[in-house]
């Protein structure tokens, strides 16, 4: 039976960012405003979430560092990451420098690279970072992390010994790497890779086929990119079938290879489900134990949500309680599956994003009250 809390119901609000429109912090705050406009005495607990995509690094404590770098198309831009000097850890989103928004009008699935992210990594090492927590969501590239390697002084070569051009498409001709100018301190750091989707690098559920079309790849491009990532795995000896190795266009492949080259093992690289890591870091399971309503959300709810996104992770946590679950999204392209009662709210088409999300919060509250009255 759904819990009906006497007095002030506890509401946990744990959304992802609504990409390109609202950060997780903003979404949580605006949803709270909408809910309290209907349930005036609600005890609100906000838990902004992320899965390794846009906004992940900003949820960690530390100094926010902004510097010039390049986007996925190689154009000059600026990007920001978080550095915690006390723990010698840098929190970097691949989306910050290598994300889709900068190239959405002219996608670069075949030629885009992660060099700009590598610049951030190299900078973090000079500041004293010994560990990189890399959020893998929202990338515009399928280069297996080779752009990062180039930024760290490691150049991919073809069979004739010439440098390959940037991008994943060129990796079909990969034969070797030139490591003579490697930035060893940066390349040898500990890597924690937060995957927003636990897909493999290659195959039917691999990076090219699952995410290539979103990044502007045609059917022909997808096939070539899949072969390119397979060639990268062949040359590096990395098992591309492992879960999460396809996130952000296969970045884990390149980083696992260089880490093993320097340390002799892959023990210094961990690929983890980003949303689950964030849930644990925020003690989400403990916070929902007393909740009557748990609200989450994202920009688009679709088949990829179940691959390890924030919404699926929150729903899994809620399933171990008797709370009502609510999902807010710009669109629903798949059915919300949950053992709990669920309120699903689609954002209204308004120009004001804050008003959109606030109204959605009010709709969630109304839906919760209806369920509580029916099942109480």
From TrEMBL:
EC number: 2.7.1.31
InterPro entries cross-referenced by the UniProt entry: Glyc_kinase_flavodox-like_fold, Glycerate_kinase, Glycerate_kinase_RE-like, Glycerate_kinase_sf
The keyword Kinase belongs to this UniProt entry's keyword annotation: yes
Coiled coil: none
Example GO BP: organic acid phosphorylation
Superkingdom of origin organism: Bacteria
Family annotation (NCBIfam families): glycerate kinase (TIGR00045)
The protein's name: Glycerate kinase
Source organism: Corynebacterium lipophiloflavum (strain ATCC 700352 / DSM 44291 / CCUG 37336 / JCM 10383 / DMMZ 1944)
